[in-house]
C-alpha cells in the first residue's frame, strides 16, 4: 500500500504521548525495588534466573489460576505504608518515563491486606495516595486510582470494599471487579456496583478475558448487571460477531493488554494471533495497556512495539487509541486535559 512506502523510518514509539487505563499497582513493582525488598522477607535472589522464576511470568502459563498463584510472592512485599507509598510513586514515575501522561492505577485493598493484617484499608489507601500525589507534583502526569473488588472473595467482602471506595470517592475515580470470571457470576455484585455508580464512581469490569466458551457473554453481564462502560480486556468478543456489535452499540471501551493475554493464554497461539487489529478495524474503542508490567516484564513501549511490528500500527492509529483512552478515562476532564496535548472529546 502507498502509505507503507511513504516512510522508511520506523516510528519511535517512546515519543508517543500515551494514556494508560489498565495497570495494577500491586504488580507494577520496579524490579530493582523487588530485589531490594525480597531478602527482607527471606527471599534470596542470587541471580537473574531465580528472580525470573520467583517474580516473572515471561512464558505462556497453563491457565489464569496458575498466574494468579504466582502473584503471591509479590503480595508478601506489600507489607508497610512506606513500601506502598514508594511503589505508588515509582509506578507513576515509570509510566511517565514510558510516555504516559494520563494514568489510571488500580489496586485491590483486600489483596494487599490479605497477608498484612496490621494494614487497614485506610492506611493502605492513604499511603498510595501520598505516593501518587508526590509523583503528580514532580512530573506533569494526571493519575487516577481505581478500587478493585475481588470476585473470588465472599460477597460480604465486596460490600465492605464498596463502602470503602464510596467513602473515598474524592481519591478514587472508579470501581472494578477482577479475578477469575469462570464460576464467579457478576449478578451477586450488582447492588454494590449500582450503589457506587450512583455515588459518582466510574465502572470498569474485568470481563471476557479468559478463553472459555461463555467468555464473550460475560461482557454483556458486566454491562447489564454492573453498569460497566469500560471493560478490562473484553478481548474474547472477537469470537462472537454479535458481541462485537454489542460492544459498538453500547460504546464500550476495551482495555486491551496484548502481552498479558498472550502470557495467560487468553489468546491461543502466538502474540501474532492477538485480535487487537481485528477489534480496532471493527470500530471498537480499543486502548493499549500493560495490565501487570512488573510481573509480565513489559511496559507501554514494549506493547506499542508489538502493535507497530506485528500489526503494522502507524502513528495515526496509535493517536486514535490514545484519544479513545483519554476520552474514556474516569479522571476529571479538567485534570486530564491539563496534561494532554490534544482536545479531549467526549466520544
Ligand atoms: Zn487486569
Keywords:
single chain, 347 residues, TIM Barrel, 18 helices, globular, binds zinc ion
Overall CATH architecture: Alpha-Beta Barrel
**Gyration radius, to the nearest Å?**
19 Å
User: For the record, what CATH class applies?
Assistant: Alpha Beta
Instruction: Tell me, briefly, the overall form.
Output: globular
CATH topology: TIM Barrel
Q: What portion of residues belong to β-strands? A: 5-15%
- Helix percentage: 40-55%
H and E order: HEHHHHHEHHEHEHEHEHEHHEHHHH
The chain-level structural class is alpha/beta
> What's the structural domain tally?
1
- How far apart the termini lie comes to 30 Å
Ligand inventory: zinc ion
Q: What is the count of DSSP helices, taking H or I runs of 4+ residues? A: 18
Provide the low-confidence segments as ranges: 1-6
Main sheet record: 8 strands, parallel
Main sheet strand line-up: 1-2-3-4-5-6-7-8
The average pLDDT value, as a whole number, equals 94
Instruction: Please count the beta strands (DSSP E, at least 2 residues each).
Output: 8
In the CATH hierarchy, what is the superfamily?
A: Metal-dependent hydrolases
Would you give an account of this structure?
There is one protein chain. The chain has about 350 residues and is of the alpha/beta class. It has 18 helices and eight strands. The protein has an eight-stranded parallel beta sheet with strand order 1-2-3-4-5-6-7-8. Strand 4, helix 10 and strand 5 form a beta-alpha-beta unit. The longest helix has 18 residues, at about 120-140. Bound molecules: zinc ion (ZN). Zinc ion binds next to strand 1. Zinc ion (ZN) binds near residues 178 and 232.
